[in-house]
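Please complete every field before forwarding. Incomplete forms are returned to the sender.

SECTION A: IDENTIFIERS
Entry label: holo-142
Bound molecule: zinc ion
Molecule representation: SMILES string

SECTION B: INPUTS
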Amino acid sequence: MTSYQGKCHCGNTEWSATLDKEQQGHILCHCDTCKILSGSVFTLNQIIPKSALKISKGESSLGKYTYYGESGKGVHCYFCKNCTSHVYHHQEVMGDDKIVLRTGLLKEGLDGTLKPAAEIFGKARLGWEKEVATTFDTLPPS
Ligand SMILES: [Zn+2]
Ligand SMILES: [Zn+2]
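SECTION C: PREDICTED COMPLEX
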């Protein structure tokens, strides 16, 4: 277990995440929602227990945006109300104790220490993007 530090763009919000060895890499998501929410071509994520994330500064600065996924269940996105950086998402379909952490905002995500571990929703990958890790068409079989 290693502790990683993250902060939003404006610095109002800071957090630490404790990641197991198998969580110390990015899951790239190519789905259209990730493209639109990030304004980019994929997002960098890891699924972690909710208890592994500690908001150390500015918890009250976080806003919540909810959309409904293909399952019909809510996906709650927590973001800095000032600069709009997305810190983490909670998908109801995963239960109460799991969250999706945006690993690209961790210091080790920004400096390249964390590497791609897998890619999901590869079917929505843009044609000019190279594959960088094991890719699943949608989600890995559970
Ligand atoms: Zn911010
Ligand atoms: Zn996605």
